[in-house]
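User: Good morning. I'm curious how pyridoxal-5'-phosphate would be positioned relative to this chain. Could you predict the structure with it bound?
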Amino acid sequence: MSAPETKSSAKPVANPWILAIAPYIPGRSTTDDGRKVIKLSSNENPLGTSPAARAAFAGAANQLERYPDASATELRDVLAAKHGLDPARIIYGNGSDEVLHLVAGAFAGPGDEIIHVRYGFAVYEIATRRVGATPVIAPDRDYATDVDAILACVTDRTKLVYVANPNNPTGTYSARDEIARLHAGLRPDILLVLDHAYAEYIDGDAEDGGMALAESASNVLVTRTFSKMYGLAAERIGWGYGSAEIIDAMHRIRLPFSITIAGTAAAVAAVADTEFVDNTRGHNAEWRRWFSDEIGKLGNAGLRAVPSQANFVLVLFEGKLTAEVAYKGLMDAGYIVRWLPGQGLPDGLRITIGTADETQGVLGALRDLVETAG
Ligand SMILES: *Cc1c(COP(=O)(O)O)cnc(C)c1O
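Assistant: Good morning! Here's the predicted structure, ligand included:
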C-alpha cells in the first residue's frame, strides 16, 4: 500500500496580506550582552502601580478556577461612573491593542483603506493589514498630526482613520478644535478612532473633545488603557467608547474572556486611587518639562525635543551625534530607550520619563555623549 502522492513541498500557506505584516517590535529590557538596565523604552509608569490595585490583584488569587465575567459588568460600571458614560456602550479588551484590532476587524476588509499618520503607533498598520485592508499614510507637519494631510488622504475606499492623541512615538497633541475639524471633514461613513492611551498626561485640564464626540456622533470610537497612567501594563486592560452600533459589531468578534479576573480587580481599584494618578500626572509633567528644557540647551549640538504631552519625549538628533550612536551609547551607560528606524525615525530616540534619578541620569549620559561627539 502506498501513501497518496503529495508534493513534498506542499504546506499551509498564510494569507498574502498576513505575510506583508512587519512584526511589532516591543521595547527591550536587556542590552545586547544581556545586562539588565534601566528601561525607558516602553512608556511604563516609573512610579509603579497603585498599592490598592496591587492588593486587589493579589486578592484575586483565590478565584483562579473561575472564568471571568464575560460582560465585564463591574469594570464597565466603574468606568461609566468615573467618566460619565453609558456602560452599555463600553467595549473592553486585552489591552487597548485588542480594541484597536477589533474595530478594524468589524469595519474594514480587503479593498478598504485605513489612514494613519506617518509617525504613528505601530499597531495601526498591523491591525490594518491583518484584516486585508490597505494602510494609507498621511504625512506629518514637523512630526505633528496634520489634519489637512489626513483629510487629503480620504478616498471612496476609506473606512477608518486611526489617530493617537497625544501621538506615539512623537508625543505631539492636537487640540480640541483640530480634532473637531478632522471629524467634521470626514464623511459620516468613515470611522474616526481616537486613541487616548496618553490622554491623562495632557497638561492642565485640557482634553481633545474626543469623548464628547464618541458620545454624540455615530462614527467615533475612543480607546483608553490601564497600561500607562494606571501602571497596569502587565495586566492588559483596555477599553473603548462609541455608538451602540459600533460597540455591538465589535462585541461579535471579541474573544469572550479576553480580560482576566485579577486584571479587572486591579483596574477597578486603580480607578478609585485618584492619589496615585495625581502623583503620576504631577511627576510626569514636572520631569517632562525639565527633560525637554535640558534637551533644548543641547540645541547647538543638534538635539531637539519634539513638544510632548505624553509620558515620553521624542528627541531628534540633527547634529554630529546621531540617534544610532546615542542609542548605543545610552545602552552602554545603562539606559534602554527606543530607537525606531523601522518606523521611519532613524534620527529620533523616544525616551520615557522615568523616576527623578532615571531622568537626570539619562540626560547626564546624553550630555556626555554630546561632549564625546565633539
Ligand atoms: C501604549 C499604547 C497603547 C496601549 O496599549 P495597551 O494594549 O492598552 O497596553 C495604545 N495606543 C498607543 C498609542 C500606545 O502608545
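The pocket of pyridoxal-5'-phosphate is lined by residues 43, 95-97, 121, 164, 168, 195, 197, 225, 227-228, 233, 238 (CB under 6 Å). The chain is about 40% helix and 15% strand.
Let me know if you'd like a different ligand tried.
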